[in-house]
DNA sequence: GATTATGGATAGCGGCACTTTCCGCTGTCC
DNA sequence: GGACAGCGGAAAGTGCCGCTATCCATAATC
């Protein structure tokens, strides 16, 4: 397959493919003559993965590059790859530490203990959770933090489902790729489902049963996100 | 309060505050003389909201502007505001329609029916779910779509918790802001929790019980994201 | 043999979120 | 009352990011 066909199949413009090759996101084609190269279905697959992570997952090209290189390097332990993926999912925030962040970290640690989760409270995920808590408080919506346990309870079966899906993979590269895709695109999938569920819950509470629900008139119309 | 103090309190540089005012994200201060203005706690709160939506929520300034203007306009029905927030949460994708997207839309509609959700299958949330499904398939991970029902089941209690939190608000502006914050920051919160839960589930399966789990050696090390 | 596609290299572009610079005025401290 | 940092307002500049355009010599295709 030449670059034009690869472009047609993947929907990615030729100059963009060249650009990805230059950036090291996509291996160069096999040269058959000084200015002719051939690409295979592996290139196509890789290209689709890049676009999925970029468009739907919202990762930067730099983050995608790191993830892909980690996926490809067989010496890289699997958990390293996941660390990279996890770290790059959220942009590096790093605002001033301060006591608020310390408190939030403490709360994250308490949550983990409360739920008996075996996870590092100070890893990237714990850290970004702490940052979300701080942001909520700073924005004057600290009350939202009370939902942490409800959210955590919902996250458990999701994580189990993800693990189950990943567990069915055998080849290392497949497995790692599954985890990355699951982590990144799964987030987008859940987000969309959550918004759909909002619309339903809202319709159920404010719409269906006749008399308005807990929020009274003010909340009328919390629908239509579906 | 003058702009310097507002800057100190919020952690946002003075030129950036000026920039937000120019962009219409933040109302100008009350002029006390031709080149002196005073800002109040409302400005501070608004500023914190902007930074939360920007840094943690990952919204663009343009999207934040739309949301804020919708929040402020009392004529705007609440569900319109939510529509704006929901629409802007995911960047406008719009790739070629094609039959894959049609199939995915159909699946979304079926999911809604299966779960008895009262939500518009073709609204922004349904549409972005369909796009995620297409992206998963295109990336060669169509199997992940099998988890849709598990994800949907987990989204239900989350949506109920969100609604419950929002339902406690009375004032319109408070309510709308809660919904926006909950939708945007709640997504980040769940994402972090999900990654923590991954680490736990992985530790539980591959680490704790001695002999390796379903994935065998290949999956060793799906930990450390916490 | 004309047209089109290709690999490779370099330069340019448009959007975004600021940041810098400048101006003339003001509030404040000594 | 004089020095000086801070202010509001406007305009131009910056840095990064994800491409896109242009050019060249060569290769494939009709």
Automatic annotation (TrEMBL), chains A, B:
- Report whether Cell division shows up as a keyword of the record: no
Q: What region holds the HTH merR-type domain?
A: 1-70
- A Pfam match is MerR_1
Q: Print the keywords alphabetically.
A: DNA-binding, Repressor, Transcription, Transcription regulation
- Give coiled-coil spans as residue ranges: none
Know the name of this protein?
MerR family transcriptional regulator
